[in-house]
């Protein structure tokens, strides 16, 4: 039984306790050591019990010695525990080491088709300019595709659109739309002016596919009908769209052209996106590339849909979505847009 | 149209450089497709007469040619062409000349013979495309007609000046611009140059045309005007060099002086004419009538044509066809070397009729493209048959000009644009003009047509640029926004978007298991693309096969596109709807993958739960497919499952091995189906309780049906319901399986008591056991 009145007993208890703390080699072992060294059954605890039998003065000084010894041991224990926690954590994490470059590839998300991305971006530009997006059927009547657009049967201008006709109804009465312009007609028939719409979608022409033409392609068409709308508004709208979509360095210009459904008619060109106007092979050295057609809505078109052309005026414009993508991304051959080759699709 | 600058200068003193003129033409809407410089670099080329041709020993492909290069100077050259003879006049490039399309000529020795120049082909001189032989200028000595002597510069001999040829694309509304005069008129008006057309005075013969020939029009609606004129004492033969030169530059082939003259006039004025050999015309005259059913005619190109009664024929006075009006003449009355009396036809044909005939016969000619746009009609000829409507007078308001163009032009400026184009203007009142349209501008019939002319001449670039104010904000419709969402979800599921052709091969629908009528294209490019698709399946399977053939067999693809059913009763157009199709072909993909992707899609657009009802769908694996149904209405949105193995074979995927999951839904119906409301649902702050229930259920009972029963029985307290295990095997009878569900119960306003949870559990078990052949496992 250790004697608390013997100073050497206290010192011995501390020395031995420290030695056991130092010898503990795991958090569990340390927990056992803690109970033995400073716990209720420890030597220090027995010495503590012995204090009661000592005279008051001695009891005070021995008690202090005892407390100081316990505090030192406790601090030592705490320190040891922290160190051990750290080193155990180190060892555990080290054992979990992973080479992040050895991760096996898993299939990731797919890609939107380039045409979809281009169409969405064009739509967003026009929505930002206050337009809404209209849509219509791809199988159309001859009336919507041609007649209402001031192209009566037998009109020589019909040769501008080599058209697929359907074996449906009287011969020549139904077809695959040759442009998105029939949507203009449907919109004007179904809602009164003012009208600010763009109509993106598929169109069909009986063209043998080559690097710049597909029999199935995508167009976007714009139509504005309001009081006091002028050619100046058309010109400004095209310029605003051009800089918004192609960037501030690319500008547009209009030159006279002919479409049966617009008068005056224009073709519009933009600075070549390859050479930025300096002249290159893509633009045949002119610095300009043709983008689409435009013009003021022809009075005969207004007549076909019952809009008074003295009260209202309007303009329309259209161009190829695929062609925009082709110019933006430098696609040499458009046919790749219909191949659905994953090596192409996954680039965008 | 090919337009030589020298020809334009006949009508206006154009001095601007070729590039500036090109820009001006572009800005006038006469689109310049090419600018070609010709006849340059010929300074060192002279005319030479061939004096002798001698073989060179041990050389088969070249010969020694001695020529007279003028002034009696004889020159020896080595030449590899064999298409000329002694006495011929040929071009000789002297030493030191750099040829336009050839080398710089040097003195050199070949097989021991010194060559002191080079005899040239048309190609080497940049005068023609002919590179097969030497350009032989004229035949034998003393040709008085050409008057060319050895030693003369080639440019003098041929009447060649350095020239610039513009290749123009002329729009369909400009008949006048298909002529040198018309182009020159536009340019002169824009550049403020004087413009005039020579006014030729033909020598009148002693005998009036009416005594020599007859003319009659039976089809006045197709041929409103016909002029006939007889030319006598005509000498055939070749045209003078300056004329052949211009015809060649303009892209036409010289034939003989009579045909050339007719073509020349057409190119210059835009009015096609047709010369006939009067003595080969039966009855010495012309009759214009509709073709008779079954009638045929052999045209100049040697083809037999079968016109219809809508087509207009030119016949001789006996009624035998001699040409298709306004398009092409026949072979029988063709001008020949012996022709001495020519009947010249100058007519105006109804443009729409010419366009129709041209399209029907698939025959477009220089004449037909002019007539179908409304060719100008020469005035002052003899023997007029029929009258044309006088050119219109149009009221033009300056205010209207400015309103349409967004400009601020005054009356004088408006008139100044029109007058030089040949429009006669007069003032009706301030701000209002009376404009008489010239005969050569039949495209101008309305005020707006004149406004276009004002804009064109003044220049589109001078019109200011403004941006109109839309009445409201721009926005995508909910449908359009949701469609974008659908696409995003599908890419998130690993699918790449494809755009496949809307036109399929005739057997494709049958191969994909679809029967019933399909809409066909009347005039397909190829039979493989002749049927409008009713499903996205063939297109996407083909795309998978395409990629598999390029060693990318493991793919997921989707498409959003229109499909076309037979028209609904009373409708004219096909029943056109927008579909979403998804083909899942990762290595482990099957019908389960289709369900996974479908669930992600349905969740993304907040669909109320749909029934997945087992069903054998066309093209899909009969025991691994289902239809998607809106429970409330019974409406079917589409289906999903796995592609039938036979269908995979049919579309070239048989060799790939592995299954292909498939979803196809009608996007319009999908997005119109009932959706969870957008109102926020409160989230409970109280603890929840989970209950696991496993039922042994007959294989014929869909798990989905059990799940629906549980969902109903669980009531408001059931906040989550998941099927987490399916077990077949020991302990479960054959033909049955154990379905384990985890049910999570929770209340918004309190912690559920054991009694409440127990009651809910009992309710659920009872509901399942009473509604299905099912028993609680271990219960």
Secondary structure elements and their pairing?
The complex is a heterodimer of chains A (348) and B (779).
Chain A: H1 7-23, H2 27-38, H3 43-50, H4 56-95, H5 114-128, E1 132-133, E2 139-141, H6 142-145, E3 174-176, H7 182-190, E4 195-204, E5 216-226, H8 231-246, E6 252-259, E7 262-271, E8 288-297, H9 299-305, E9 313-320, H10 321-329, H11 336-339, H12 342-345
Helix pairs in contact in A: 1-2, 1-4, 2-4, 5-10
Chain B: E1 2-4, H1 5-8, H2 18-27, E2 31-38, E3 45-56, E4 59-68, E5 74-79, E6 89-94, E7 108-110, E8 113-115, E9 117-119, H3 154-158, E10 163-169, H4 180-191, H5 209-212, E11 214-217, E12 225-231, H6 241-249, H7 257-269, E13 273-277, E14 285-290, E15 297-298, E16 304-305, E17 312-316, E18 321-324, E19 328-329, E20 342-348, H8 351-361, H9 366-371, E21 393-397, H10 398-405, H11 411-418, E22 424-429, E23 432-436, H12 447-458, H13 478-492, E24 496-497, E25 503-504, H14 508-511, E26 531-532, H15 537-549, E27 555-565, E28 575-585, H16 591-604, E29 611-614, E30 620-629, E31 636-643, H17 645-650, E32 661-666, H18 667-672, E33 689-698, H19 703-714, E34 718-727, E35 736-745, H20 754-771, E36 774-776
Parallel strand pairs in B: 11-14, 24-27
Antiparallel strand pairs in B: 1-10, 2-10, 3-4, 3-6, 4-5, 6-9, 7-8, 12-20, 13-20, 14-17, 15-16, 17-18, 18-19, 21-23, 22-23, 25-26, 27-28, 28-32, 29-30, 30-31, 31-32, 33-35, 33-36, 34-35
